[in-house]
Amino acid sequence: MAGGSRESGRTVTSRVLAILEAFEQSRTALSLTQISEGSGLPLSTTHRLVAELTDWGFLSRGANGRYQLGIRLWELAQNAGRQLREAARPFVQDLFSLTGETSQLAVREGHEVLYIERIYGTKRVPRASRVGGRLPMHATAVGKVILAYEEEWVRTAYLNRQLERPTAHTHIVPGRLAEELDQIREQGYATTLEEVRLGSCSIAVPVFHTGRIGAGLGLVLLTSQAATMTRHLPVLRGVSAHIERATAHIPLESLLGSHALR
Amino acid sequence: MAGGSRESGRTVTSRVLAILEAFEQSRTALSLTQISEGSGLPLSTTHRLVAELTDWGFLSRGANGRYQLGIRLWELAQNAGRQLREAARPFVQDLFSLTGETSQLAVREGHEVLYIERIYGTKRVPRASRVGGRLPMHATAVGKVILAYEEEWVRTAYLNRQLERPTAHTHIVPGRLAEELDQIREQGYATTLEEVRLGSCSIAVPVFHTGRIGAGLGLVLLTSQAATMTRHLPVLRGVSAHIERATAHIPLESLLGSHALR
DNA sequence: CTATTCATTTCCACTCAGTGGAAGCCGAGA
DNA sequence: TCTCGGCTTCCACTGAGTGGAAATGAATAG
User: Fold this and answer.
1) What is the 3-state secondary structure (H, E, C) of chain B?
2) What is the pTM of this model?
3) Would the CB atoms of A74 and B80 count as touching at under 8 Å?
4) Which of A130, A141, A185, B211 is surrounded by the most beta carbons within 10 Å?
5) For strand D, which nucleotides have at least one atom less than 7 Å from a protein CB?
6) C1' of D6 to CA of A32 (Å)
């Protein structure tokens, strides 16, 4: 396993995966040439591999000749972390039903939070996150609450970097952030106010798993609701406790902390 | 492209994909040996490829040494059909909020319905389908409604096979099914009564896209509700119309009908 | 503590699948 | 008709991939 392999050149496997990952950057369908450029592979090689991936349904080709990730890939990937998501989902749904606010569940992946569940209606949607999407930890409530309860070395490593600043309200001074995390751990919840996107604020509580922090459960609200956000705390805590119970028996080592801190 | 390639042996790509697909059969984590058997590859080959997939996060290894599909794969695959799912999701959420019943959206994939959205709370859950899961079309309301509006040759091809029978209530006589499909097209909705699983019934309406049938939108209820199911029709139709409007601009060729009828 | 068994990991000489430059093709526009 | 850009096909070369076999490790019994 040794060091990084990502040099995107040696093995066939790496070429195949590089092709798939090329689709993460752009949200539109890609032409063969674009895939070739995005993956750094010669055109003819790309052509051959793409054709085979398409055969298997891992890529699909639209009417315009462009390619997209295929439904087979999606279908297959639904099995990843399925136990966890299926166990947690109805509770997140309950959280939404009880609050009427955008509800989300996220875990840490490296230096970011990865949203694994997100429920919202057609009404208010100040969306920044999405299921399967990532955001920096220090800009989100779920991220901060996870970071706050993480082991010390994770916190330290995290703060010891250049921190992104999505909006002018994002806290990026390491010292003050460290204090904020301490306070979060004391009070048992985290909040943000327009730190990832203007117009929205958020609040989140921790979800524990086998004694360690496992995930963050939170709500996103319009900034106008910021003052009264904390009224949702009882519900958040109740739902969190339910999720903890429902997922206690599920082995997560494979999901969490696997990618340490890249 | 020519004929089928699935012979699971020739190319490296096929070996890699065979390994990934090995995880679809079993819901538990797999040992190396199991993956080797499941994919039909020699152990040492499996070992090498699995190691590389793990490096990339497409597989992950639990504490017990067993492998599972990795979160990276899931994350990547969230981009497949994302436009469609993100557009439709809040409306399915609304359907759930308005009815309080398990709400689902499904498309046709070959001879089966593939559930792409499913929303339910912690209460009643007579679950048979799941997001990313498949069921035979003739046993489900969403499936029947899709089949009913499909082009003639699709219907014919479908009925011209041995039809599975999950429960004793499943309709599997081709002639009678054809009649039922005609009736569904006339009345504009389909129902089932314990046809996929005892204890539950369902009702579904069509969702059109560029003039053709695109998906099925439905509810699953307890059998005790069967008699009054149709009271949800107005809501179902309203939500369906909203989904049609919201997805009209999204190109779907790449999703639907791609895998004709395997 | 040793023997046995079964799963995983490592090794390495052989060879065929994969490669990619180049040429051919095709459709759109001038 | 000619041109251009992107896609597809071809094919001789070669090193990435292969897989049998042996080493290692973990688990259990004797």
Assistant:
1) CCCCCCCCCCCHHHHHHHHHHHHHHCCCCECHHHHHHHHCCCHHHHHHHHHHHHHCCCEEECCCCCEEECHHHHHHHCCCCHHHHHHHHHHHHHHHHHHCCEEEEEEEECCEEEEEEEECCCCCCCCCCCCCCEEEHHHCHHHHHHHHHCCHHHHHHHHCCCCCCCCCCCCCCHHHHHHHHHHHHHHCCEEEECCCCCCEEEEEEEEEECCEEEEEEEEEEEHHHHHHHHHHHHHHHHHHHHHHHHHCCCCCCCCCCCCCCC
2) 0.91
3) yes
4) A141
5) 6-10, 16-21
6) 8
